[in-house]
Amino acid sequence: MVAIFVVLTIIVFLTIDAILQKREAKRLALAGVPQGAAPRLPKVRVVKGLFYAPNHLWMKVLANGQAKLGVDDFAVKLLGRIDAIETVEPGTYVKKGQPIAWLKQGKRRLALRAPVSGRVTQVNRSLLENPEQIKENPYTRGWLVSIEPEDLGETAPKLLIAERAVRWLRREGQRLREFLGETLAARPDVGLTMADGGVPAEGVLSYLDDQAWRECEARFFSMYETE
Amino acid sequence: MSPKIRIKLPKLTFWRAVLLVLWVLAAYVAVIRFTKGLGAVTNLRDDFPWGLWIGFDVLCGVALAAGGFTIAALVYIFDIGKKYHSITRPTVLTAFLGYLLVIAALMFDLGRPWNIWHPLVMWNHHSVMFEVAWCVMLYTTVLALEFSPVVFEKFGWHLPLKLVRSFMLVFVVAGVLLSTLHQSSLGSLYLILPEKMHPLWYSPLLPVLFFISAVGVGLAMTIFESFLSHRAFRKELELDVLVGLARGVILVEVIYLTVRFLDMINRHVLGYAFQFTREAALFWLEILLMAVIPIVIFSIPKLVVKRNWLFYGAVANVLGLVMNRLNVSITSLERWAGPYFPKWQEIVVTAALVATGFAVFGWVAKNFPIFESPVPEEPEPEAAGSEAPTYA
Amino acid sequence: MSKGILVDISLCIGCESCMEACRQKNHLKDTGEHKLSPNNYVVIENLNDEVFYRHACMHCEEPTCASVCPVAAFEKTKLGPVIWHEEKCIGCRYCLQACPFQIPTYEWHSPNPRVHKCNMCYDRLVEGKQPACTEACPTGAIKFGDRDALIAEARDRIRKEPNKYVHHIYGLKEVGGTSVLYISPVSFEQIPFLAPNLNRDEPLPELTWRVLSQLPNVVSFAGVALFGVYWIINRRIQLQKLAEEQEEHVPPEEDFVEEIPVEEEEGAKTTEP
Lengths: 227, 392, 273
Known about the structure:
The complex is a heterotrimer of chains A (227), B (392) and C (273). Chain A is an alpha+beta fold and 227 residues long. Chain A is 38% helix and 20% strand. Chain A has one domain (44-227): CATH 2.40.50.100. Chain B is mainly α and 392 residues long. The two termini of chain B are 23 Å apart. Chain C has a 3-stranded mixed β-sheet with strand order 8-1-9. In chain C, strands 2-3 form a two-stranded antiparallel ribbon. The chains are: A alpha+beta (227), B mainly alpha (392), C alpha+beta (273). The interface between B and C is large, with 57 and 55 residues.
């Protein structure tokens, strides 16, 4: 009888737990939090021949000295959902560290700061109209603006290219993992996916609260702000 | 990124409330037990001296912690593939906690727990219990060492980390040996009761049967635990890993059934299983849960790849093992000694210990890197950030 | 010389003088209960109104309690009695569980519990006296003496009155022999605490010792086997790695970063001056 009793007790406890988990899942679903273990972060694509700024902008230098700027795949994967993209108007002069474009997700904006100073010559209108395109390939059709830089000689050597860029991106992945682990440990809904050292999820920013969003922006996208 | 352990007042969830209530009740029971004796809080008596605390907390506790040595052996010694590395840490942690809880339960159950160290100096190598005591002490130490890298990593203590790692193989081999010895010895404990136990459970092969079933449940517990971690921590389920373990369960349980039934046939006691008795019913339930159901579920290719069915199979095996241990330690003796059912105090202490185990596991899982594969032995040569651009 | 007690069930009249003597000698309370307990080391059981028998420690030659005790709190003395050392006991109660005659009893209601059982008045034996119970027995139903002499006497009694006794000395061989011997006019099958082990001549500790004695073999064999398996498997893996390295450099399996080819501009062209 003891055996039966113990086995039944265990079954009862497991059932209660299953019911509680289900209710919690429902609650979270109502709150709009994506369910289940988040998927692994798909690989972050990199093009070796581009310069990368530490705030995840890439730069392609053309033969005429102009440069195309775009955002790298890391940022795209981190955001997951991009509702709209804004850029400064052509002809605007931006100083290094000033915002040159914004990625919008709902009410939130992620400012992308220029790695070089110069005058914006062109913006990618077709991308602005169709922001989802950026996901497809942020390095080609997903370019943001063209700029006529005035300090390229000085800034370019400080950017990352080729194998250095690859290594740097790997470390960024590690940094992201740590960031998510630290920031989100307290959040039982999304946080635990990461806090236990699990793999960062694609689009994790889309279900973080505003505070975590700001923190993330500060850590990964604000390198030039102080300049 | 300095590692720190968060201490925050936790939100009161259902399970935390349950834990709290259990702790309060267990504390009350502890006071009574240590002032008025075992009789005041248990239904134990001279002809039924071992009850729920030994039957469940100790026998099942040790068996359910068998994942620790099974997985360690598979991963480190038989090197069955990198993919299993990710489950070593949670299983070692479970085993370690399991053994700590067994020791905690013994503090309640032993009449004179303050003498628990006596086997260290007062030897009786004829006693199975003596061997079990030593194995449990040594194996708990080994488990602590096997788990220590997690703590060292967390706090960045490189020297002890290196030291422990260089001896890891020795620890693992020692752990496997010690486990083999005392998993089987828990069965040997009952060898000396040939007349008291029901023939359905008494067998000269008890140590062998205990060992085989412990290996099986070690695998099943790992599946079970991965599933619970998946739900509680949103950890990804590594299905290929778990399916591999499920195959292992099939193999082990088939061996178990073979040994068990051959032994019963050889001893001419199979007939007892076909009598219309309580014992026979419990016997079949045990066999069904521990072996038949898991074998069936895990052998159906369509089911074994579904997480829910994997979970059901593993749970069946775990429940079957619990039944087996309780049948050996309690059911089989009731025919001779009369019925025994634990007092609520016994149940509360057991529940409180198990709940504490879950709580501690959750806490460690949150604060230590246990779901990660061990960090590679040689860190990348370049110091982090050396190539970060200067922003000046 | 090993001492013993011969119990002749045919002579016992159920007067319980032995129980009283035992209580006095051991300073036990008379609680009125009629079973082995911390207050009763010996009990006279009433089988039917004519047959009474003694229920107390058998003082096995190879005591199960002494074998199972993890801290060797039980000792089979040279004189015969099996005695318990309080200071060693950890309270695991394996002795209660294992005793084939269900003799030891426990102080279930004490915070510092002791195990109780008959010790054949070991202290008296050391002084050269006989146990209190045999001294008190008015009929000679329990008789103290050298075990060998008692066996001879038991045989003698059975031979002289073959119709009165069952032709068996219980304890001569049971569980490897006991210091307390029984002869009886009724079958031992009828005596509950003796029946289970009737004619089980193998000492119970053998059952566990058979397994425990294999431990050194298991440890050394399994230890060597485990290291061996590790060595073989790792050697194979090493060789495999070596072979792979010679063939080609295999890129790492999983990489967070993936390199992609870039097709030439297809988006809006940048104006060239």
